[in-house]
Write a sequence for this structure.
């Protein structure tokens, strides 16, 4: 079935709800249609965007150490898998894996990545799962009685509120025979470095953010004049997070799903958060979700962390 047919009603319902909030918002999960997934992969290669290359370096250095947590015949489940580039470091270090199950909301993008991985890893079963990892995930029946290792890189956990992150950690723990969870998390640092990472000179992040509005126009019948909004990244010191906003350049009215949304000049749509952690704050979050941090891996500059969690 065509993905647009599946997601458009949910996209519309979600947007109607979140744009009705006092602080207008859109759920960041809707970033990742095919075009959004492509743009995000472009972002990961930008000089300002240090998280991807730093996490990749950590995984490259410590892949064997992480792989020691993986049992023979286990399944590696990746949440929000994208292009699965970093995953290859774990796959190469853990030949004992039997199955890789990437989970992503973008069906077309996921199927293409999975097909390439199956070609490159002939002895590995690649089982893509089209799903929103924030909702209950139904694993294929043949994976239910296997040891599971969950991979959650990219500091995607930082996009979630504390309550949502705890809820996700609990739901992952209850997936089945989960032996460990490997989590990438961005660390708190100088605000200038953080803002630059989310507002690059090429405008790629701006295009990624604005793609949400193009998607609403295309799939949900909205009439956003996209060029009447500009991208803005803000550092919220109190909440230790970068916020992404789409800011209205003028007073305007946008129609969506039979509703009219009024924007004042300077009013924004809050599209994403990216929380930044310390070792203590991440450990506290993990424990609230039912996990212990058993391994804490960072780069020499302490820009980013990769943690191994085990359930308690």
């Amino acid at each position: 079935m065509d993905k647009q047919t599946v997601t458009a009603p949910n996209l519309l319902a979600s947007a109607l709800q979140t744009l009705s909030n006092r602080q207008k918002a859109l759920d960041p999960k809707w970033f990742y249609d095919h075009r959004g997934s492509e743009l995000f992969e472009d972002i990961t290669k930008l000089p300002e965007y240090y998280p991807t290359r730093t996490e990749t370096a950590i995984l490259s250095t410590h892949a064997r150490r992480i792989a020691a947590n993986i049992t023979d015949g286990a399944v590696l489940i990746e949440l929000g898998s994208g292009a699965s580039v970093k995953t290859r470091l774990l796959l190469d270090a853990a030949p004992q894996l039997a199955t890789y199950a990437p989970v992503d909301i973008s069906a077309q993008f996921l199927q293409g990545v999975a097909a390439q991985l199956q070609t490159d890893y002939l002895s590995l079963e690649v089982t893509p799962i089209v799903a929103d990892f924030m909702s209950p995930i139904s694993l294929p029946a043949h994976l239910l009685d296997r040891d599971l290792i969950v991979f959650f890189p990219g500091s995607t956990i930082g996009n979630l509120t504390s309550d949502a992150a705890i809820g996700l950690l609990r739901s992952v723990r209850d997936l089945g025979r989960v032996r460990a969870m490997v989590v990438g998390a961005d660390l708190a640092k100088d605000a200038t470095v953080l803002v630059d990472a989310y507002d690059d000179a090429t405008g790629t992040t701006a295009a990624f953010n604005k793609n949400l509005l193009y998607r609403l126009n295309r799939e949900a019948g909205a009439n956003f004049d996209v060029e009447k909004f500009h991208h803005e990244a803000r550092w919220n010191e109190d909440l230790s997070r970068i916020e992404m906003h789409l800011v209205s350049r003028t007073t305007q009215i946008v129609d969506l799903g039979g509703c009219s949304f009024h924007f004042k000049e300077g009013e924004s749509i809050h599209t994403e958060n990216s929380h930044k952690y310390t070792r203590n704050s991440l450990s506290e979050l993990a424990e609230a979700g039912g996990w212990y941090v058993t391994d804490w891996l960072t780069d020499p500059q302490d820009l980013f962390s990769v943690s191994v969690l085990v359930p308690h």
